[in-house]
């Protein structure tokens, strides 16, 4: 990850981490955008994987 993000600034890294986390949330809770109800999410059940970072960089 470090070699793939050479030249990234702080804001770039923050955006990358945010997008990777959102991908992990969507994977764990696919109904999150389809439901009109407020959902209770368990943060401990969301695991950000290397694949989330790779996808976020594309």
TrEMBL record:
InterPro entries: AAA_lid_3, ATAD2-like. Signal peptide: none annotated. Pfam families: AAA_lid_3. GO terms for cellular component: nucleus. Keywords: ATP-binding, Nucleotide-binding. Residues 1-35 form the AAA ATPase AAA+ lid domain. GO terms for biological process: nucleosome assembly; nucleosome disassembly; transcription initiation-coupled chromatin remodeling. The keyword Nucleotide-binding applies. GO terms for molecular function: ATP binding; ATP hydrolysis activity; chromatin binding; histone binding. The keyword Cell wall biogenesis/degradation does not apply. Belongs to the AAA ATPase family. This is AAA ATPase AAA+ lid domain-containing protein. It comes from Thamnocephalis sphaerospora.
């Amino acid at each position: 990850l470090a070699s793939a993000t050479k030249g990234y600034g702080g804001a770039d890294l923050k955006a990358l981490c945010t997008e990777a986390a959102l991908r992990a949330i969507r994977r764990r809770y696919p109904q999150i955008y389809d439901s009109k109800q407020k959902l209770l999410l368990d943060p401990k059940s969301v695991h950000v994987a290397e694949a989330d970072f790779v996808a976020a960089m594309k």
